[in-house]
Design a protein that fits this description.
Largest sheet: none
Distance between the termini: 19 Å
Order of helices and strands: HHHHHHHHHHHHHHHHHH
CATH topology: Growth Hormone, Chain: A
Number of helices: 18
CATH architecture: Up-down Bundle
Strand content: under 5%
Length: 429
Amino acid sequence: MLQNRFNSAMALREKNTNPSSSREKAPTIADAALLGFISSLGPFAVNANVPGFHAIAADMGVSFIAVQLSLTVYLATYAVASLFVGAVSDSLGRKPVIIAGMLLFMVASLGAALATTIEVFYFWRFVQGLTAAAGQVVTQAVVRDRWAGLGAARMNALIAMFFAVSPALAPVVGGALIVRFSWHAVFVFLIVYAGLIALFTARFIPETLPAAKRRAFGLMQLLTDYRRGFTNIAFMAGVAAHGCCFMGGILYSAGAADFVIRIMHLGVDDFAYLTFPLIGTSLVGSWYAARWAQAFGPVRMLYATIGFMIAAGAASTLADYSLGWGFPLILIGPMLYQFGMALCRPVMMAMNLDYFPDNRGMAASIQQFFVTAGFSVSTALWVPLVMGSAWKYSAVMTFSAVLVLALWIISMRKRKSALRETGLREPMA
């Protein structure tokens, strides 16, 4: 009851939001499961076919590096699409954008499954990247349309519990499909996945942006909105901190093929030994995120958690370098970082969208761009540099957490004045 009254009070204090927001029920597990499922496709599609890179290379007569490049193509286009899809949903509504994105993703997945040359494969991965962002970006706007303050943070935390399973489970599912069938089966699975998302969105997701609240779509309006976003220091530092937080945690998924086979000395179908411990700690962290934010205050909780992530990364780097830990001790550092990341991200996501109550889709687009950029940097830059050395993985993780701390300090120092410009009180008070 206390939580319900608190969420309602926070929603009533917020101006310029969906008029129905104050009447929305408190976040539930069912809401989170549905929104988590919708937002999970993009990250799942990143890692699902990684175990099949060698098989794709053999079938198409190209090198492993050439197939690895398809991941970069997907992530780059995913990042670019993330910048715009939220703004499109501010004009057209949330549901149509999600459904259209999923239908186009199904077409692209079919094309990738039927590809016989690496050039054609690149093209369809390009199209996949353009369309996959719809679910993950727009669900952030849906959450903020319906809930405010710690209510939004709690919903993000619940979604994260389901979302955490997706990128970590992807190589496990992909590996199983490849071993039993072929790499083509991964893309058939993605067709079914996207089809279910489109169906569930059409059937169960309410439209959270009424026509009266939608913004006219035009180039000048779009440029004006993005200028507001990119010149807001509190917002930009916050979303960059969120992206760096994700960059350190996703490193082990991005480098899973190397970490599992060369460092853990396991097989192509043994990714679960890496991913399941990370999933478990993510679930625990997500479960406590909103509770600890309410108990200790969101800002205090975030600073303490970021400090914990830095300490965990530094200790792991030292242990990996000097002691040469093997499996399973080598997973302690990543698990602790993953726990901290799961505590941080739901609260960061909610706080970062507070600055733009009139176009949350645009704000969600920019935030997702930095998350995707974090994944891209891990894949394209960090993984090639750290391959084969456990301590290097931990060092990058530590460096990422230090960046998070520096950026979040900047965001918090500018937050009060940035909120004042919107006419809002502190939703997280």
